[in-house]
From TrEMBL:
Recorded GO CC terms: ATP-binding cassette (ABC) transporter complex; outer membrane-bounded periplasmic space
Organism listed in the record: Thalassospira profundimaris
Protein name: ABC transporter substrate-binding protein
Cleaved signal peptide residues: 1-28
Domain Solute-binding protein family, first and last residues per copy: 86-451
Length: 534
């Protein structure tokens, strides 16, 4: 368990125990270019931009530094995984907490430079943090999770000393600085390209990377590819073995599979579960369970039928969970149905108390205000069609037995985030959310608090709001923590704004590459990748 006490103890000695050793193959010494494929569409180079999708997180991860990062550990099933319990230096050389845990002082690495060769200073860190808490939307809410809400909390003491002042000590503050959002931007270049109407240079950073990270984007062909070139002056970690990485967008899973099997590409990222199972033994396949992540069926409470609790329960009992798990997940991951009626611990994700029971479904439908059924659309993303489409077809058939007529709507991946999460306009849809900070209260903060990005169901419950706020910064060993978390779990299982389906795994195939490491943000970290003989 990670608590504020653990962080204070470790940070007071040294802000950065060495992570599990990353080893690079000797064969990578003369490596030049690695090609990876993914079905996901990068729609911006700026994570802070409204509507930037999850595929674009990889830009912030690989092209920018954060003050700190997470360590590494052996992953379940082989390879490496990030280690949530260990915080290590990235741009910061060290850090210390004040006795009350309310002030964090960071010392920056003196030799850190941006990709244009200019020195990284504490003033750049402050400007970047000011931007993150001020632009609104996803980045601002993410910063809030760690207790960072306004520019007045950040101070550049000198070029290499940066101070953060918290309103309350929190178990999430330091880990929240290791997620992709608080990335450090070359503020001089940004200001030169800002305008009165665009003070944070959103338009410029949409198409340019101006960081101190391991790579820079030298070419972005929207909908086709992103080309990364190594920054040989990077001091945030070991020098990346590969000079150039080309990430190509290949919407067809069959094409990606053929490319990786033939060795035409070295990495196929986020491949379908079926392909992962069938490719194992032919190429290297890593399948890593995604912590704090749930594939869910979401019911938008702004849609009148879904305001009826009996309609929501009818659908929950109608869902053919096992058939979906076999057809969409290919049996990989962890089932999240058929659990106990009430939570008895704080394990998360956990099985909901619902299972497939058509008779119970019909009883709830008959009691509802929509006993004769209704019509709606079930929306899915084309970027995630490998699991969403088979799941949607089975759900369409199942709820049809309740008189609910469903049309499946396919939304392009580049538009999905805006429709589902920003505008929250999809009445009935499939969605997945994985909490970056591995605590149940953090998941609730994003998925069940009113107005927050991943609350695509527009759910609002005053008690859940209060309990989430009370537990978010609370130490996990506080005696009040577990009872509050269990109460939150019981409420959302009763209210059902999102119906859990299963906890997914992230599948990555390698052929002629090594050094893959799983990360909570579910994007490809190219910094440790190597090219090896097939």
């Amino acid at each position: 368990m990670v608590t504020r006490r653990n962080f204070l103890k470790g940070s007071a000695v040294l802000a950065g125990t060495l992570p599990f050793a990353r080893t690079f193959s000797a064969l990578a010494a003369g490596s030049d270019t690695l090609v990876a494929v993914s079905s996901q569409t990068v729609n911006s180079l700026d994570l802070h931009r409204t509507g930037t999708n999850r595929a674009s997180y990889q830009i912030a991860v690989n092209c920018y530094d954060r003050l700190v990062s997470f360590g590494s550990k052996p992953a379940e099933g082989g390879g490496l995984s990030y280690d949530y319990s260990t915080i290590v230096p990235e741009l910061a050389e060290s850090w210390t907490f004040s006795e009350d845990g309310m002030t964090i002082t960071f010392k920056l690495k003196s030799d850190a430079v941006f990709n244009d060769g200019s020195k990284v200073t504490a003033a750049d860190v402050k400007w970047s943090f000011d931007r993150a808490v001020s632009v609104g939307g996803f980045p601002t809410v993410q910063m809030k999770a760690g207790g960072f809400t306004r520019p007045e909390q950040f101070e550049a003491i000198d070029d290499e000393t940066f101070v953060v002042k918290l309103d309350q000590a929190s178990k999430l503050s330091l880990p929240d600085l290791a997620v992709p959002v608080p990335f450090i931007i070359n503020s001089k270049v940004a200001k030169e390209n800002a305008t009165t109407d665009d003070p944070w240079a959103m338009e410029y950073l949409h198409t340019h990377t101006i960081g101190s990270g391991a790579y820079s984007v030298t070419r972005w062909d929207a909908g086709q590819q992103v080309v990364f070139e190594r920054n040989d002056k990077w001091v945030g970690g070991p020098t990346p073995p590969v000079r150039r990485v080309i990430m190509r967008e290949v919407p067809s899973a069959a094409t990606s599979r053929a490319l990786i099997e033939r060795g035409d590409v070295q990495v196929a990222f986020d491949i379908p579960d079926k392909d992962a199972a069938e490719l194992a033994g032919k190429v290297t396949v890593h399948s890593t369970p995604i912590e704090n992540c749930i594939h869910a069926l979401c019911l938008n409470t702004k849609f009148e039928p879904f305001q009826d609790p009996d309609v929501r329960k009818a659908i929950a009992f109608a869902v053919p969970y096992e058939a979906i798990f076999n057809a969409a997940a290919y049996g990989r991951g962890a089932p999240l149905w058929g659990g106990e009626p009430k939570a008895t611990d704080i394990a998360w994700p956990r099985k909901s108390p619902y299972d497939t029971d058509l008779e119970k479904a019909k009883e709830h439908m008959a009691k509802s205000g929509f006993a004769d059924g209704f019509e709606t659309k079930l929306s899915i993303s084309t970027d995630l069609s490998s699991w969403m489409e088979p799941a949607a077809l089975l759900i369409q058939e199942a709820v049809g037995k309740l008189g609910i007529k469903v049309e499946i709507e396919k939304i392009p991946g580049a538009n999905w985030r805006t429709a589902a999460l920003v505008e929250k306009r999809l009445d009935f849809h499939l969605e997945n959310f994985g909490g970056w900070l591995n605590t149940p209260d953090y998941y609730f903060f994003w998925a069940y608090q009113e107005g927050h990005l991943f609350n695509s169901s527009n759910y609002s419950n005053a008690e859940v709001e209060q309990l989430t706020n009370e537990t978010l910064h609370m130490a996990m060993d506080d005696p009040e923590y577990a009872p509050k978390i269990m109460r939150m779990i019981d409420i959302v299982h009763e209210d059902l704004p999102r119906i859990p389906l299963w906890q997914p795994a992230l599948n990555v195939a390698l052929n002629g590459a090594g050094g893959y490491e799983f990360w909570f943000h579910r994007q490809l970290d190219i910094r440790g990748l190597t090219t090896v003989e097939s």
